[in-house]
Amino acid sequence: MQSKLPSTFDAIIVGGGHNGLVAGAYLGKAGEKVLLLERNHHPGGATVSEKIFPDYAVRLSRYSYLITWLNQLRNA
Predict the structure, then answer these.
(1) Would the CA dihedral through 39, 19, 63, 53 be positive or negative?
(2) pLDDT tens-digit profile of 8-18?
(3) All structural domains of the chain with their residue ranges
(4) What are phi and psi of 41, to 5 degrees?
(5) Does residue 32 contact residue 23 with C-beta atoms inside 8 Å?
(6) pLDDT in tens, 57-71
(7) What is the helix, strand, coil percentage profile of the chain, to 5?
(8) Radius of gyration (C-alpha) of the chain in whole angstroms
(9) Contact by Cβ (8 Å): 55, 49
């Protein structure tokens, strides 16, 4: 089965994180032809958590480490 994608787009969004998904939704709702590209097999970016320690039932965001620095920077 062959997909019928448009040959041109009004906007190309690189990254299927929260901001890319919201931008794509607004542009699509406005009638624009949008192509959203994401390198991972699922969208969501930092909103998605993953099990990174095989022996522990802990799921972390890929960016949880960076988020810990935000509070330290704000209090500096």
Answers:
(1) negative
(2) 999 999 999 88
(3) 11-74
(4) -80, 0
(5) no
(6) 888 776 766 767 777
(7) 35, 20, 45
(8) 17
(9) no
